[in-house]
Amino acid sequence: xxxxxxxxxxxxxxxxxxxxxxxxxxxxxxxxxxxxxxxxxxxxxxxxxxxxxxxxxxxxxxxxxxxxxxxxxxxxxxxxxxxxxxxxxxxxxxxxxxxxxxxxxxxxxxxxxxxxxxxxxxxxxxxxxxxxxxxxxxxxxxxxxxxxxxxxxxxxxxxxxxxxx
Length: 165
Hints:
- The protein is an alpha+beta fold.
- The chain contains two helices and nine strands; from the N terminus they run E-E-E-H-E-H-E-E-E-E-E.
- It has helices at 46-62, 92-103, and strands at residues 6-10, 18-25, 28-36, 68-73, 105-106, 117-122, 129-137, 147-154, 163-164.
- The strands form two sheets. Strands 1-2-3-4-6-5 form a six-stranded mixed β-sheet, covered by helices on one side. Strands 7-8-9 form a three-stranded antiparallel β-sheet, with no helix packed on it.
- Strand 1 (6-10) and strand 2 form a beta hairpin.
């Protein structure tokens, strides 16, 4: 669900774990790829196939647009001291960091401790906007995951307005 109307849909490999749609927002077009990697947490072959689908989808979509955002339960922490928060045996952290480089997206919520759900934004937005990843629901309150959001605000012109994802 979104307060923005979808302007375009992209095909994904597995429609039961992923969806991708473009939206026109206050800061421009955003193509949001939403997914879950590890529907059965770290069980092979499920997690490995879901990660592979995510990577293939995102690379394919990023070749069509420069505004790809990746959002979802990636079951992976990007903090080096939290190596135990990744999908064991498939190198999810390394593969997702590599994906961010290929697709030119920022690990926006990657600095939030004990967090495995993420919103990753296109680096192109960072030229004119600031990103701030935040927790809006602590782990254990409603789920075994933290609830995260990203506030996006202009870097200049004194505007106080922001967008939340």
